[in-house]
Amino acid sequence: MSPTTVPSMELVDLQDRKQLRGAFGSFPTGVTVVTVGGDSPRGMTANSFTSVSLSPPLLLICVGKDAVMHGSLDRSPTFSVSVLDADQEAVARHFADHSRPAGAGQFDAVGWQPGHKTGAPLIAGAVAHLECEKRQMYEGGDHTVFLGEVIAAARWPLREALLFSGGCFRRFGPEHAEGRVT
Asked: Which residues are CB-neighbours of 109 under 8 A, at least 6 positions away?
């Protein structure tokens, strides 16, 4: 038996936010835009999103306590999530840009429509739209976990989702038959 070459490991200093962010960023995620409607609509790019339950249909998003969106979500009984398409990196960057306009003006740069149930903006061209009623909020260190019950959903199954991993936007690679789940 021959020795195996193991790539070098980097120990993460848990007090170094950049290193910790790099470790967390090793896990690929989808990219979404979370929105609230009302008198002052707001959008935010988020990759800390996951499904929680099918019955009832629940999802969660995590939002930094210092984000403007945190206050918007705190005040709103509803919110929406648009799962971005692989070709919507510019949309993701727009809603991550802190210099974008406040209120409805921030949606002038993208196609959107109001959600039928929440009125929150839904991003045109997305892979899926999920409209939610806020159910619970949980403390999570410097973030708050917002739990939402899905009250309306739509999807476009032939579209491919935008990914984020290692601090970069990415796309799925070519499919390989041996790794396909059926």
From this structure: 94, 100
